[in-house]
C-alpha cells in the first residue's frame, strides 16, 4: 500500500468533478437545517454514518472483487432510491474513471458505474487495498460537503477543516468496518440510508438556479 497513492486519490484537487457537487448540503442549507458550523458538523456526521458507510463498503468490495462490478453497481443502485442521486453518482463515477485513466491502466469496467464502485476499481488499479479504498470513500463523503459549506454559508475555512480533522477518527472507524464486509454477498453489504438526503436531492433537481449540480 502506498500512502502517497492514497493521498492522490483522496485529494480534492483531483479533476474528477467532485467540486461541482455539494453532497446534498445545498438542499439542506436552503431548508434551514444547516446554518452554521455546528449544524454542518451534525450533517457531516450523519452523512458519514449512512451514505458514507455504504460508499465505503462498496468501494472496498469493488477493490477486492474484480469482475463483480456489475453486481455491485446494481446493489448500490438499489440502495439509492433518489433518481437525482443516482444520476449524480454515475456522473461522478464517469469523471473519476476519466481522470484515473490518465494515471493508471484501468481494466474494462463496462457501463457507467456509481462513484463508489468506480473508486474501488481505481484504488485497485493504483495498488491500494480494500481498506484504503474505504478510507478514500468515507473521507470523500464528508470533505466535499464540508468544502461546499464554506461556499454556501461563508464559513471560516479554518473552522471547517477543524471539523474534518475531528471527524478523521470516525472516518477511519467507518472505513475499517466497511472493509470488513468486503467479501460478503452484495445483498449483505450495508444499506444505511438518509431519507432527507433523498428528498432534498429530488427537490434540488427541480431548481432553476443552483450553485451545485447536486
Helix content percent band: 55-70%
Q: What shape does the CA trace take?
A: globular
Q: What's the architecture in CATH terms?
A: Orthogonal Bundle
Output the helix-strand order. HHHHHHHHH
Count of structural domains: 1
Stretches where pLDDT is under 50 for at least 5 consecutive residues are none
Q: Tell me the name of the CATH homologous superfamily.
A: Urease accessory protein UreF
Sketch the major β-sheet. none
Going by helix content, strand content and strand pairing, the class is mainly alpha
CATH class label: Mainly Alpha
- First-last Cα distance: 33 Å
CATH topology name? Urease accessory protein UreF
* Share in β-strands: under 5%
What radius of gyration results from the CA coordinates? 16 Å
> Could you tell me the mean pLDDT?
94
* Number of separate helices: 9
> How many individual β-strands?
0
Structural features, described:
By secondary structure, the protein is mostly helical. It has one domain: Urease accessory protein UreF (Orthogonal Bundle), CATH 1.10.4190. It contains nine helices and no strands. Helix 5 runs parallel beside helix 6 (115-125). The mean pLDDT is 94. Belongs to the UreF family. Required for maturation of urease via the functional incorporation of the urease nickel metallocenter. Keywords: Chaperone, Cytoplasm, Nickel insertion.
